[in-house]
Amino acid sequence: MSNNNEHKFHYEWTLKDANFTKDKGKVFSCFACGGGSTMGYKLAGFDVIGCNEIDPKMMEAYRTNHNPKYSYLEPIQTFKLRKDLPKELYQLDILDGSPPCSSFSMAGNREKDWGKNKKFREGQAEQVLDNLFFDFIDLANELQPKIVVAENVKGLLQGNAIKYVRKIYTEFEKAGYYVQHFLLDASKMGVPQRRERVFFIALRKDLAAPFLYQKDMFTLMPKLNMEFNEKEILFKEIYDNNTDRALTGAVLNIYKQVKEGETDLRYAAERIKGKQDFFGYKLTYKNSVPLTILSSDNVIVYGESRYRNIKELHRCGTYPIDYDFINNKPEYLIGMSVPPVMMAQIATQIYQQWLCKIK
Prior knowledge:
Blueprint: E1 26-30, H1 36-43, E2 47-53, H2 56-66, E3 70-73, H3 76-79, E4 94-97, E5 117-118, E6 127-128, H4 132-143, E7 147-153, H5 162-175, E8 177-185, E9 196-204, E10 212-214, E11 220-222, H6 235-238, H7 249-255, H8 266-273, E12 282-284, E13 299-301, H9 310-317, H10 330-336, H11 340-358
Parallel strand pairs: 1-2, 1-4, 2-3, 4-7, 12-13
Antiparallel strand pairs: 5-6, 7-9, 8-9, 10-11
Helix pairs in contact: 1-11, 4-5, 9-10
């Protein structure tokens, strides 16, 4: 495995042994899932005081692992309208959120789903998913934290979705914030996983004067450096030979015809069935950086008749090895989460470049 000294935060850690200093500022997390971003802020030394989440199963896992001071199990559409929130939520250093983003994913229906009511997963209320980002900005407008951090998929920057980016900038402007976005790859940040995500980072305008520079003749922007160049971590460094997620059925039969170097099962399926299929089943190799963890994680370890096992998923997702998933599938929860180490890197830079100077 990688030397711990090579990385600012190590990918293998435990909640019980972590020393969370809680001295860098207060954070509240929306669309909190199981707390991937929450754990990142904690690793960076922040005090995460609460969360908002719509999914009861996710909230149960969050409460079990993080014991938040404040937790609100409800849609953000109603949460943002509350007038009974504690004073502490109006004194935040960071408001964090990862609005559900499947409408903008390049793997989904994209434009065909925009503006439609959808259930993000079973058991949740129907919502117009592409409006949730703006509900989040409404909440920022109400709470007025020093900084807002919002994570979303790379697809938000591609094709017609760029119109939503323009609207995001407009709504942050109305709420009183300077905003900029960064496309970041977790594999450059000490995370053993190729995972590109866009982060919108907004600074309240009344705090921005010390950090402003002239981007062009029309635009002022608070300067923030988000360049990360940590050594990439290969799959062989986080490899574990456990077979707790073995291949079965048709997938196993197709996999037996795979040839080295292929990226997924579509080519083997074509040789067997005469048509390309099973392209959602990816192949990972020991000398490559691990592939992105999705909510189903159909990534197969080449040379072995299995998917990535639970220990490997913990390491790829930088989830603590003692995390209690309750009744949630680990691959689902890890795949839905911001890798804690990724968020720890971002939070550290926000503190060092902005927050410590504001205070």
